[in-house]
Prior knowledge:
Elements: H1 3-15, H2 17-39, H3 44-60, H4 62-75, E1 79-83, H5 86-97, E2 109-112, H6 116-120, H7 123-129, E3 133-136, H8 139-146, H9 163-174, H10 182-199, E4 202-205, E5 209-211, E6 216-221, H11 225-231, E7 235-241, E8 245-246, H12 249-263, E9 271-275, E10 283-289, H13 293-297, H14 312-316, H15 320-323, H16 334-345, H17 361-365, H18 372-380, H19 402-414, H20 418-435, H21 464-469, H22 500-510, E11 514-519, H23 523-533, E12 538-541, H24 548-553, E13 557-559, E14 568-572, E15 575-577, E16 582-586, H25 592-595, E17 601-607, E18 611-612, H26 615-618, E19 627-631, E20 636-637, E21 645-646, E22 653-660
Parallel strand pairs: 1-10, 2-3, 2-4, 4-7, 5-8, 7-10, 11-22, 12-13, 12-14, 14-17, 15-18, 17-22
Antiparallel strand pairs: 5-6, 6-9, 9-19, 15-16, 16-19, 20-21
Helix pairs in contact: 2-12, 3-12, 16-18
Amino acid sequence: MNSDQFRARIRNSIANENLQIALDTNTERRLKGRIAAFESLPDWRERRQRAHAIRAEVIEHLDTYLDQFIQNATQNGMIVHRAKDASEATKIVLSIVGTGSRPSLQQKLIAKSKSMVSEEIELNHALEAKGMRVVETDLGEYIVQLRHERPAHIITPAVHLRRSDVGQLFHEKLGIPYTEDIPTLTNTARRVLREVFLTADVGISGVNFAIADTGGFCIVTNEGNGRMITTLPPAHIALMGMERLLRNLDDLALMLSLLARSATTQKISVYTQLIHKPLAHQQRHIILLDNGRTRLRNSPLKESLYCIRCGACLNACPVFRELGGHAYNSVYPGPIGSVISAGLFGSEFVPLAQASSLCGACKDACPVDIDLPKMLMRVRAGQAPVSNDELSVSSEGDGLSLMSKSFLKIYSRVAPHPKLFALSQKFAWLGMFLISPFSHYAHLPAFTGWGYSKDLPRFAGKTFRERIRHQPRHSEPRSSVESLPPQTETLRFAQSDINKTEQFMAELAKVNGNVIQTNSDELTNKVIDFLQSRSTDRIHLEPNVLDQEALTKAGIGVSHETDPAIRVGVTKAICGVADTGSILEADGEGGKLQASLLTEIHLAVLRKSDIYPSMSDAIHLTRDTKSAVFITGPSRTADIEMTLTIGVHGPGELHVLLVDD
């Protein structure tokens, strides 16, 4: 895509009134929500710097950590593959899918959770070309798949659409009466996709983070589709960019405290899965993709590999907020996309770096403190690696127009000479007079393309030195420290001063969960009362949690096997997390993961003594599990017009029976 093509897409985006309304809605809610989310993390600046240092350490010693991860994952029973490029990754996926449960002549059904790597290698097209049926199960991804589009945002794929667009789409594609009611549209997708989850031959997901010293990986979702496709199909394939590594579980806890706040304005996502081994009767594969990442790591753009794919820079960028993702015509749009697209895919994406005001908002928003303005300047200067095996750089100034190159060359020669620079400022008004009346016309060139929608500013009548000479002098200049606003001291409480139970209950209520307080003697009766209030006479029960004899006397049937028709699942949580209102569930006897996933209502038994202060305290309990998940409220989505809807693929209700010891 050359500069002219990019500018044509820019003009189309700016002229699209429907797109502008959708982007404005996303921006306003994301920015306000992010501010509120980080208010609950007083030390977020320190965490941000630690996160930056961790990512720098991993990328600097990536080969060492990859070897450690591969060794541990293999010992855990997972099958690890390495792919040097998109073609090799696609071949590996096809070879795995070809060994699925159905005969090779029958069409295989592939259920996919959100994965930017799969978009990067165009996996869906390759699978469909071989006769496979591929279904995106994230609501936003499902919507754009039905529209035959790419995602418009790393986190919110359908950010460019309004409810009327989705209503018309579902009317045409799914045959439902036209409606703009978002819960109705969400329930329609739930009904259609439930059958996909239950019958899929293979599940394919991305990977948010992998942990070198445990050989496990983490998947973060809100809707429950990620849990479905990693739990139900007989084979699961995890697609992972080779840079998504962390050293240990402590690193992961830190990253999780920053990721959701930056991505979706939550303290933590609804489902944070940690997967270490295959489940019974299941194959689990991990594909580690290079596809230019080694080349990028050995280039001046290495810092871009620190990215944790939160999308915060897209929401903060004043340019992206006017254009949306499709204007970039790349898998990865926005500030970070302008860097990694040029680094991974070649010089045709260098012009994307021109779509930046270099205001620094992207750097301020980045939870791992990537210096994106510096990276964008390096791409503009032609320092993106070429798209072959060499580690050289592309031509200097590839992303600039001829006029821009000429102007910058003149500027670079004039600027080092103060007298010549001052003289040039005196005559700059003449050029301004010739250019500014015409710069808003799209058919005439401007220095950077900014003139398509903004007039160039007028040059100052006087130089800086001339203006400063006439300013009154202060007898004692103020120090830079004195000029700063007073700093408010952060209140910090010792953990012993915090009532963990009350904090847990308050946080769970914020995420639409509910607490039922009880004691050991009354636990089963409390459950019976609840079930009778919901006219429910059959449950999926984890063994040794309730008095089954009492349940039978009350006319309640009990199943320990997976049955999608059962409305209520009852499990015992391993622990609770006070500062997020989360509970931890893990694989075990009686299909307890399915009991907390497939049912409409999830009842979790939690003892007060098992509540931990924070994720960093509880995360090590996952180390010896095959698959574990931190659950924070009922499943949810905001993929249609950023409107929160409770109950998507996972349970629509979460009730925690808090047992007093």
